[in-house]
Amino acid sequence: MRNPIPSSSLSSFVPAKASQKPRAASPAAAATPLSEFGREMQAGLARSPRSISPKFFYDAAGSQLFDRICELPEYYPTRTELRILGECAGEIAGQIGPNAEIVEFGAGSLTKVRLLLDALETPKRYLPIDISGEHLEAAAERLKADYPELVVQPIAADYTMPLVLPAPMAGAGRRVGFFPGSTIGNFEPDEALAFLQLAARMLRGGGLLIGVDLVKDPGRLHAAYNDAQGVTGEFNLNLLRRANAELDADFDLDGFSHAAFYNAPRQRIEMHLVSRRAQSVSLNGEVFGFAEGETIHTEYSHKFTVEGLRALAVRAGFRPGAVWVDPERLFSVHWLAA
């Protein structure tokens, strides 16, 4: 997402030379079974250009760093979405109806859903889904203590994959998805459509409440993803720290820097880890060479227009309803009937 190491304009990247081909692993080293993270990291380093899914940011340390990012003065999305949810909670609750079951995709710290739960009429059950199981369990326990009448059933899973949710509770109203934080922007366009199609099928008869970041001045976007305190850089680099800890990799964290820039023609922030020098990295017995300036792409954050998101929702099988936008038109929250 964002930090202070060089300027995050496109022109700041050093043109990368052809990277060295990975040397073949010895049979003994290659025999070590890899986790999903390990398999995807190894595949991501082997491809050109190099990349890794942003879902692997969110181990316990990464989730805590993201919570810090959300409190930064430059990072407008969280506070703007919270303002919309707080000021429009009554209208949103009217769309959802009584006795609802709320399914939150990528639930994180379960902060925003509290505004929704406070406004809803007798919500029945809350099903938060997140890939970081340890972080999710701790947040769910806190929520249970604050909402003793609510059934809270956390699900540690990758919400981008097909899921079988528990059967609706007796007497439950609509099953409604909650997808805040403009996480939809992390997907490539075809992936965003596929996720929304999956959600439309999963939530049939209910709906989806989704937060979406809007196209805006590039300077404001640059500041949000390159914060003065460098927290976003820590968040980005934590991916390499996690690889060292979990995959026995040997990334030199001082050898990589955070960079983020706005690609205006594609209406997206692109986030990378940039190799500061020519170097080699070992992972599971394979050695990957990096040229100076070569990058690992770690995240996209696509920005939308209100009309563009509504058109995408129709393609996915939703019926767009009410839209709530802040006065500066920085952020939007959409009700999509399934």
Write a brief caption for the model.
With 338 residues, this protein is of the alpha/beta class.
Secondary-structure element order, N to C: HHEHHHEHEHEEEHEHHEEEEEHEE
* Major sheet description: 8 strands, mixed
Strand content: 15-25%
Q: How much helicity do the residues have?
A: 25-40%
Q: Low-confidence segments, ≥5 residues, pLDDT <50?
A: 1-31
| Class from secondary-structure proportions | alpha/beta
Features:
globular, 4-stranded mixed sheet, alpha/beta, 338 residues, disordered N terminus, 8-stranded mixed sheet
Describe this structure in words.
With 338 residues, the protein is α/β, with parallel strands linked by helices. Helix content is 34%, strand content 23%. The protein is built from 11 helices and 14 strands. The strands form 3 sheets. Strands 2, 3, 4, 5, 6, 7, 13 and 14 form an 8-stranded mixed sheet that branches. The chain has a 4-stranded mixed sheet with strand order 1-12-9-8. The protein has a two-stranded antiparallel sheet with strand order 10-11. Helix 3 runs antiparallel to helix 10 (231-247).
Question: Could you give the topology of this structure?
Answer:
Elements: H1 27-30, H2 36-46, E1 50-51, H3 60-69, H4 76-87, H5 89-96, E2 101-105, H6 113-119, E3 125-130, H7 133-146, E4 151-152, E5 155-156, E6 175-179, H8 189-202, E7 207-213, H9 218-224, H10 231-247, E8 256-263, E9 268-275, E10 279-283, E11 286-290, E12 295-302, H11 306-316, E13 319-325, E14 331-337
Parallel strand pairs: 1-12, 2-3, 2-6, 3-4, 3-5, 6-7
Antiparallel strand pairs: 7-14, 8-9, 9-12, 10-11, 13-14
Helix pairs in contact: 3-10, 5-6, 8-11
